[in-house]
Design a protein that fits this description.
Arc Repressor Mutant, subunit A; alpha/beta; 7-stranded mixed sheet; globular; binds S-adenosylmethionine; 2 domains
Length: 343
């Protein structure tokens, strides 16, 4: 183990501060279009070139470029042309690349930053910051794109004898609770053409975005969405599969059990509840286990929204109390996949 001394501790803590500055540098680079411009230039661009292309104030741009050089985000040749370090054209440039991380910087600075800035007051009084805004819905949708690549892979690689795949292929009614902008059910509707999909969410803005997309893709015959609270689901014995994609943790504790009961009611017997959510540790030691990093960070930034992540044992208990049987769990890269049966 590395020896800890005061110097090493100062250095380690100061790295966090450096990360904060780098976060803003990256977010500014994204917002003023530098990354987009550099992505298209193999040889690199000089500061006057970038300033002219993007209409930027050169003296400030110069400082940005020098600092990006310090952070080893950009390199510079002897002619003063700046370009991305290897692979960063994908990670910071090309927004269509699945490894691109700009969306998470965007949400950290523009949504989470402000929330964390005002949160100390809430640590004193409790209470909940109203976290839902159109901007948040859009940025969350952008930042969670990699999750949808994961989900697409998951469903296209299900074994032929998997009951979920069999049901979806035969043609069933499927409900997604907390559907956000409808991406999950839209994606599934494109893979499984015999099934019909419904989505509900508490936030109307996401629902409106979903409606537009459904019409654009001409899926309105098989996919529908509605602005409805999970705790007000009116269905009985109607769906073969109900899903929640990174939603279980985000439902406020006072209605969470109620929603699971409503989901149970809405399922047909032999139907399945399918949950994808961030893994959260049970024991304190596991808070240093990198497998839980996503869940731990998410819980922290959502604390003052009143959100409380559940660990595996708490989820299992709640599902069993709502009536679910045969609760099966797997974990993949920080994501828990839970399948529970209504007998
Ligand atoms: C992290 S987002 C995930 C959205 C979507 N499943 C996705 O992956 O893009 C969680 C969603 O749960 C919704 N939500 C939270 N509480 C809810 C409730 N009581 N009823 C219905 N939806 C709820 C939020 O509005 C939000 O869209």
């Amino acid at each position: 183990m590395k020896k800890i001394n005061i110097k090493s501790q100062v250095a380690r803590i100061n790295e966090f501060n450096k990360g904060y500055i780098a976060t803003h540098l990256i977010n500014i680079g994204n917002e003023i279009g530098i990354f987009e411009t550099l992505k298209n230039s193999k040889k690199g661009l000089t500061i006057p070139d970038i300033a002219a292309k993007l209409g930027l104030y050169e003296p400030y741009l110069e400082i940005w470029c020098q600092t990006a050089y310090f952070f080893e985000i950009l390199d510079c040749d002897s002619e003063g042309r700046f370009k991305f370090q290897p692979f960063l054209d994908k990670i910071l440039g090309d927004k269509s690349n699945f490894r691109n991380v700009l969306a998470s910087f965007n949400i950290n600075v523009n949504v989470i930053g402000e929330r964390l800035r005002i949160s100390p007051e809430y640590y004193k009084i409790g209470g909940i910051i109203d976290g839902y805004s159109p901007k948040r819905s859009e940025l969350v949708a952008e930042a969670t794109k990699p999750m949808f690549i994961f989900l697409k892979n998951y469903f296209t690689h299900l074994r032929n004898d998997d009951p979920i795949k069999q049901m979806l292929e035969q043609g069933i009614k499927f409900l997604d609770i907390g559907c956000g902008t409808g991406r999950f059910i839209i994606q599934l509707a494109q893979i499984f053409q015999n099934s019909r999909f419904a989505g509900i969410d508490i936030v109307n803005h996401g629902i409106e975005m979903a409606k537009k997309k459904i019409l654009e893709l001409e899926l309105e015959g098989r996919v529908s969405v509605k602005c409805l609270r999970g705790e007000e689901i009116p269905y009985n014995d109607e769906f073969y599969i109900i899903s929640m994609v990174v939603t279980l943790h985000e439902i406020l504790p006072d209605v969470r059990f109620n929603i699971l009961e409503k989901a149970y009611q809405a399922l047909k017997s032999n139907g399945r509840l399918l949950i994808f959510d961030l893994s959260f540790p049970e024991k304190l030691e596991d808070f240093r286990n990198p497998n839980y990093e996503l869940g731990i960070k998410d819980q922290f930034v959502e604390t003052c929204l009143g959100i409380k992540h559940l660990n595996a044992q708490e989820q299992n208990e709640m599902l069993a109390n709502a009536g679910f049987k045969d609760i099966q769990r797997t974990t993949f890269e920080g994501i828990d996949i839970i399948i529970a049966l209504k007998q």
